[in-house]
Amino acid sequence: MARNRHSASPSHPRFWGRHAVEAALNNPERHIRRIWATREALAPYSIDKSIPVTIAEVTDLGRFVPNDAPHQGIIVEVDPLPDIWLADLLEQPDTDKRPLLILDQVTDPHNVGAILRSAAAFNALGIVTQDRHSPPESGALARAASGALEIVPWVRVTNLARALDEIAEADYWRIGLSGHAEETLAKTLGSGKTALVLGAEGEGLRQNTEAHCDQIAKLPISANIESLNVSNAAAVALYAAVEKLNAE
Description:
This is RNA methyltransferase, TrmH family, group 3. The chain is α/β, with parallel strands linked by helices. Helix content is 32%, strand content 19%.
């Protein structure tokens, strides 16, 4: 007989794996609802007594996560992080030129998680997505982000075109990445604040999104492959933007 599985709800995601769990526990903005763990996995952490903790065997923990999820002996159920307003993210001094990432209907949680990880690695200002066409917080996304979900600001907006207008008003040069562009990214990067706009897996940027970019650019990849995965493209673009800043 198959064991009953206890599924997480979209409003109360479950995170697993050491990096995702440790980052959530260390984030004062993150509300932890409960924890399931082995004694060994729980030992390094000082858990607030108000958080319910269930001690379980490794084999039993599999009931609380998707099949084959590498939980590493500890699972936390959480509330999603509080909303962040775009205006608040853009309120920064003109000297803060960290790149901003805008994702146009990137829906795969593994890709968004990997993009968050790159955003943390290259000290991006944050990411902006459209609320209806981006994944919710989840265990898969948090694990792919490897802790970055807790430290990179993530703004969800209703209308991406309107958000791009607001970003332009904050003096960002909006560069959309597309394989059909004539100029390479390196040639379009300026000395001011940069917003990098990336499209969905396969479809790329929508026409209306391209229309709200100041320039369209491509990554100079070889003819051996048609395109990069969006998370790989984001990492390369962030590196190029940060290198441009460091060279000034």
